[in-house]
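Quick question: what would this complex look like in 3D?
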Amino acid sequence: MLELEGVVKRFGGNLAVNQVSFRIEAGELTALIGPNGAGKTTLLDIISGFSAPDDGRIRLNGTDFGRMSPWRRAQAHVTRTFQHLRDIKALTCLENIELRVRGQRGSGLIPAVFLRGRWRAQEEAVAERARRILKELHMEELSVKPAGTLSFGQRKLLSLAGALAHDGDLFLLDEPVSGLDMARRELVASVLTSLAERGKHVLFVEHNLQLVTLVAKRVLALDRGHVVADSDPKTVLASTELMRAYTQ
Amino acid sequence: MSYALHLGTVIALYALLASSLNLTAGFLGLVSICQAAFFGLGSYTAAVLLRGTANEAAVVAAVCFVGGWTGGVALSMALFRLREDYFAIASFAFQAIATTAFYNLRAVTGGAPGIAGIAPLRFAGLPLASAERSLVALAILGGVLWLVQRALLRSPAGRVLAAIREDEVSVLAVGLDPNRYRVALFATGAGLASMAGAFYASYMTFIDPTPFGFDESILILCCVVLGGSGTAMGPIVGAVALVCLPEALRFAGFPSAVAANIRQIVFGAALVAIVLLRPTGFRKTAGVGS
Amino acid sequence: MPGAPVEFVQTLGDCLVSVGLYFVMGLGFGMVHRAGRFFHLAHGAVFTAGAYGVYLFVRELRWPAWAGVPAGLLLASLLGPALWMAVYRPLNRRGAGPLGLMLSSLGVSIVVQHTISLAFGDANLQVREPFWSETISFGSALLTRAQAAMVMFGAVSCATAALVLRYTRLGLDLRATGDDRALAETVGIDVGSVLMRTLFGASLLASTAGLLAALDTDMRPTMGMQPLLLGVCASMLGGIGELRGLAIAAGVLGVAQHFGAWWVGIQWSESFALFVLFVILAARPQGMRTRGSRAT
């Protein structure tokens, strides 16, 4: 279970996140919606540790994140994608995915050079897993292409592939389908559903309300830092308060 | 023949220095302008050690390495939070402080006149004074470093380094701390440059502050960026090119003062040209929010 | 330890000369940073070029001073805009970041310095103009006219900069660009032109300072490095691009250098200033920080 209690974040005089509290169960695929500037990405930053909240608590499966640095959270629990895609253009698609697998013994400097035996076998498994993920996303032919040569849609899927490789307990996905064509959107939708089925905590930010209705079990609507709605998709999207927020 | 050996030794020396800087400037895109300061640190340390009875190459080299490594850890830990251009300026300031120290700590460094009559390093009893032996020693060290760098690039850590270079936020999102890599590589590079200094002192038998200044740090940086950063062979190629250049000028008959200035002009122009040709090679992706 | 008041006033006088120099160098450097967001390390070479430019016209080409001085200064000042057109603008267009701009600036600095070396030789050149070497007494302090001019130049630049920033079009545009470049472009400010004009202004300041320094002490091709370094220090200490902070910082550095020399010895005074720079960078990297766990 992911628990947020009274999370507050100020930027100068501006309350970007204002007393946000909610609980998400494992497998409860949850969408975070709201107009631009509502604080959605800021909230993801706070949960993943890239931004320190001014107040409030965040707990995942009982572990209080406290002041844990973002890389520790990522190491143990949190998988995150970003609105501005962060693929490494110097690496191939396969390498980009391999990069994101956690717990590789060969990623330390000393083991990489001097203790080859320890990670050789693991590297095979990592490569295999990366190939499998590429296949799942219908991107096998892009395996050795440098990420810099990909189209936007392909890079977007690559970002999701990296998240699948990272495989934390909590998935924070920032606009996983924005800018994608319909075929790819359906692919992402099925990936999200299977993540939830596997018992992951999934919280995704989206503007595409169609996707939200299709896959989300629960919707959190954020406006100016407040949670203004928290229910199942149908109820939330029918709410006049939300529509008012979106059209203002 | 002896001239060629001397040139070879100098090339091997700068190849080692450039390789040491490659660990950070090449692999991580972390540009610093103080490699010559660590080179000097090691040289003077070795000169002091070689006055006494300690002249076993392995021991002296190890002491110099540790000294440089420690300095590197201290420097990078103090500065790793800085943006890359501020970091470069800070390294520049460190270089300036080091140069002043080399000129003014006369008791240790002999000041501007330097230290003469340095005893050679000994390896298994053999003195490493001659060009052949120094060349072999430096070439072996350089070769090992080259192999290590190649292995690093082909490992999972190599992927991490490429990621740190381009976008450190994605490294944080994987679950790794980019600063550990920065400190470790910077310190190792500093230690290696220091160690190179020991062999330099032994070979030349005379050292003064001239080769440990800002101009040399720029030369070493040019070797790395010119040869192609991010590869293991690059800095070695760069060193060969940039060491042979002034020699070519001398053969063309330029008096040495003129040649020295032309050499520096070429380095400066090369630096500008490199940046113009690969402008995004020195750019990082911005932070999370943007 | 020297305690006589005479020494104190003299040291104070010498200190003010340095403060004036560091302020002027920090001012140009800081304003360029405000306009372009990068470290224009070629600024030290412009300082040197100012001195040698005037030397070229007045001593070698034997022009009369009233023509040679402006000619030399103008030539050196044009280095700024020339750099913009030949190096900085193409780099900006191709997406080079602040580090790339800084490295190119460094490269240019090296080229200029060694070209001057080639043309005029490496050795110290003595430039003794009787008018400027004549000492004037200010109480118990003796300063040469050149030194007094440096102090005045520092004060005048400060006042002028404050007025320009506040009341002129360029000043307003510069402040806008410095605050938010993207926004400035949106409201129609030609940020490239602002940077070019700022570079010209900064170069004018640096070359004049170079001339005054040459009239005071010897000239040599490396003369620009120390003033630049200390100007950069003062900038960083006081907050890059901030006028009042710079003035205070230049004062602090000058005092530390001249009065500190009583304890530490004059040859370490530059290192001391650098050490101060170091400590600032290590301890207070707000705005200098991109690494680590900060979000926006």
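Answer marked as accepted. Confidence is low (pLDDT under 50) at residues 285-290 of chain B.
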